[in-house]
Amino acid sequence: GREQAELTGHRLASLGIKFDQIIHSSMTRATETTEIISKHLPGVKKISTDLLREGAPIEPDPPVSHWKPEAVQYYEDGARIEAAFRNFIHRADAKQEEDSYEIFVCHANVIRYIVCRALQFPPEGWLRMSLNNGSITHLVIRPNGRVALRTLGDTGFMPPDKITRT
């Protein structure tokens, strides 16, 4: 995982983008990943939030047999993850004059749910996507509100022997 984070940090730095901040899950794995990535992006502010913690966002459709959390977990985690979506995924303030670039370091369930919601796909389909560990998903929100998914789970910058999935 640490090697994957190093590779991800190197890839993000190589893009030549001036990132404004790294918003990360407060879970240990995401915090440690953020520390490794941020070494490649000096000066980028880091913000920890419980909203991006891993969880069960919504009951998947179609259902899966290998993962069945208790119904209460969907209510608790789902409300929190939906709050993360509403808090972080939106158009820029009308007064903003330059593009902004944020990095979110969190977890596959959260990322998949947010991608579905941002693209206005049924969020119950979140488990139909698979993400590799340390991958990069690039979501663009234009000032007019249009959303585009540039990449989903990109790990093309990693050697094949470093690509894993949980």
UniProtKB/TrEMBL annotation:
What Pfam families does the record point to?
Answer: His_Phos_1
Q: EC number(s) for this protein?
A: 3.1.3.16
CDD domains tied to this protein: HP_PGM_like
Q: Which GO terms describe its cellular component?
A: mitochondrial outer membrane
Q: Which reaction(s) does its UniProt entry say it catalyses?
A: O-phospho-L-threonyl-[protein] + H2O = L-threonyl-[protein] + phosphate; O-phospho-L-seryl-[protein] + H2O = L-seryl-[protein] + phosphate
**Which species?**
Mesitornis unicolor
Name the InterPro entries on file. Answer: His_Pase_superF_clade-1, His_PPase_superfam, Mito_Ser/Thr_phosphatase
Instruction: List the GO molecular function terms.
Output: protein serine/threonine phosphatase activity
Name listed for the protein in its UniProt record:
Serine/threonine-protein phosphatase PGAM5, mitochondrial
Record keyword tRNA processing present: no
Q: Which family does it belong to?
A: Belongs to the phosphoglycerate mutase family. BPG-dependent PGAM subfamily.
Where's it found, cell-wise? Mitochondrion outer membrane
Say which domain of life the source belongs to: Eukaryota
Check the record and name the PANTHER family matching this protein. Answer: PHOSPHOGLYCERATE MUTASE-RELATED (PTHR20935), SERINE_THREONINE-PROTEIN PHOSPHATASE PGAM5, MITOCHONDRIAL (PTHR20935:SF0)
Keyword line: Hydrolase, Membrane, Mitochondrion, Mitochondrion outer membrane, Necrosis
Instruction: Give TM regions.
Output: none
Its top-level enzyme class, in one word, is hydrolase
Biological process GO terms, please? positive regulation of mitochondrial fission; programmed cell death
